[in-house]
Amino acid sequence: MTNIVIENLSKSFGDVIAADDVSFKVDSGKILTLLGPSGCGKTTVLRCICGLETPDSGDIYIGGSLVNDVPTNKRGIGMVAQTWAVWPHMRVRENLAFGLKIKKVSEQEIKKRIKEILKMVNLEGKEERYPSQLSGGEKQRVALARAIIVDPTVLFLDEPLSNLDAKLRKNTRIELKKIQKELNITTLYVTHDQEEALVIADEIAVMNKGKLCEVGSPEMIYTKPSTEFVADFIGENNIMQGMVSEIYDNNIVTVETKNGLKLKANKTFKVAKGNSVYVTIRPENIFMSRDLKDSYDNILEGRTIYSSFLGKNTEHHIELECGDILKASFPMRQKMRLGSDIIIGFDSLDCNIISRPN
Predict the structure, then answer these.
(1) How many whole angstroms separate alpha carbon 61 and alpha carbon 106?
(2) Considering the entire predicted model, what is its pTM?
(3) Is the Cβ–Cβ distance between 279 and 352 less than 8 Å?
(4) Which of 191, 161, 162, 151 has the alpha carbon at shortest distance from 31?
(5) Are 172 and 83 contained in the same domain?
(6) Distance (Å, rounded) from C-alpha 187 to C-alpha 26?
(7) Nearest Cα to 74, choosing from 34, 93, 102, 105?
(8) How many domains does the chain have?
(9) pLDDT tens digit sequence for 31-61
(10) Of the residues 174, 199, 226, the one at which a domain ends
(11) Buried b (16+ CB within 10 A) or exposed e, 243-266
(12) Is 34 helix (H, G, I), strand (E, B) or coil?
């Protein structure tokens, strides 16, 4: 069953087009992440779905019902904003009880639900504390608990972890996904953080300049992007423009760059000789080759011109004989000196072609 359906949604603010003919769906019990840079329109789309903005055109369905003209408080949604919006003058239990009292839930049922939700979000024993007595991570969990305690049809999360430090964000997003799966609640999650989207989402919808670029599983978005923007925005990538010079029967093509570099790449769509394409290869899919006879489809020679230490890996910028530069990520133990010669290799299945920029 599909719980959220967005059809041809558009929204402008004066001359600025914030959402341009956006369409996607979220299946029941799944998390879809709206991902994109600041100003791409993802929060505008979320606000339209919530009823906080009125779209210029398009339809919004929640739970199978058209909700374009339905007030926000009648749409059956739970919401966690970037600022959490936990009421500072209320204790934790009062924050959690607020929505239930509005819905005229009995006091006995309210106490029961608060006890259950505190256990779920690991806040047992803190129900009498004020927000000022909580850490950032605890405030975030109060905001999440307050959103889900009212038993919403769908859950909306707008950059909910952006105010947390890096380590706490990693721990909290795992807890958040665990809670979402336990409740089996359909969730729309907005973020600009690529790693966060890859960890949390069942599907990712990437936006740029008001448009939806592509929708797919985290693995597909990362390993087989279909546009230059997505390939460049999600993680690190080497992107080169070239022309298809050979096509083979096993979905492999040869692409020649303007500097004469010939690469065997994976054909993910129909192409013909002479077509202009983009080639992408992730730095972590490039390996240090010990011998020109290694079983890689692409064997290249060059020299290291720059290195960045990244903890367990070191990223090297390698200038090839033709003048092209590739970024390669090797384990820390594989040390390279600047200016040293190197032979690298990678497989054609890890080298993808993209049909057009976006």
Answers:
(1) 31
(2) 0.88
(3) yes
(4) 191
(5) yes
(6) 8
(7) 102
(8) 2
(9) 999 999 999 999 999 999 999 999 999 999 9
(10) 226
(11) ebeeeeeeebbbbebeeebebbbb
(12) strand
